[in-house]
Amino acid sequence: MSVKLSALYSDSYVDIGQYRDQHFKGQLGEQESLLKYSPTLYVGNLSFYTTEEQVHELFSKAGDVKRIIIGLDKVKKTACGFCFVEYYTRADAENAMRFINGTRLDDRIIRTDWDAGFKEGRQYGRGKSGGQVRDEYRQDYDPARGGYGKARPIGADTSFVAA
């Protein structure tokens, strides 16, 4: 029995993940096709204080970066913990998925995922308070992501004890 090794090989770092943009205008199949060939990555779990220069320094190790779009709080217009990194080629973006996803930037483990391509307006957080939804109801204190969640119940304990 002959088995091709390439049939057994799966590059799970480059495979398209489960994330789909819920605000995508178009058919699911169209989004799938765009994700399959896109040179654009979504980068999450950034510190609110991570700069575009820091992102560029790290991601340029994987290839030539075309542009970086820092995610902004739609109310305050300040960084809110994510960005888009667009490469000139899909191959460079694949290198970033392989070698940068799960690494540390600004003392945080970042995660990357494929993006169908940046469109104006997507740089803004989609949470009710203007930032990211994941930061709305956070119960713990995270100084790199703005402290406590924005939608904490009134009377909730906001005391913080440093370790």
From TrEMBL:
Transmembrane segments: none
Example of a GO MF term: RNA cap binding
Superkingdom in the source lineage: Eukaryota
Keywords, alphabetical: mRNA processing, mRNA splicing, mRNA transport, Nonsense-mediated mRNA decay, Nucleus, RNA-binding, RNA-mediated gene silencing, Translation regulation, Transport
Pfam families: RRM_1 (PF00076)
Location relative to the cell: Nucleus
Domain RRM: 39-117
Keyword NAD: no
SUPFAM superfamilies, alphabetized: RNA-binding domain, RBD
GO terms for cellular component: nuclear cap binding complex; nucleus
Protein family (similarity comment): Belongs to the RRM NCBP2 family.
Oligomer and partners: Component of the nuclear cap-binding complex (CBC), a heterodimer composed of ncbp1/cbp80 and ncbp2/cbp20 that interacts with m7GpppG-capped RNA.
UniProt protein name: Nuclear cap-binding protein subunit 2
Organism field: Gouania willdenowi (Blunt-snouted clingfish)
Gene: LOC114457510
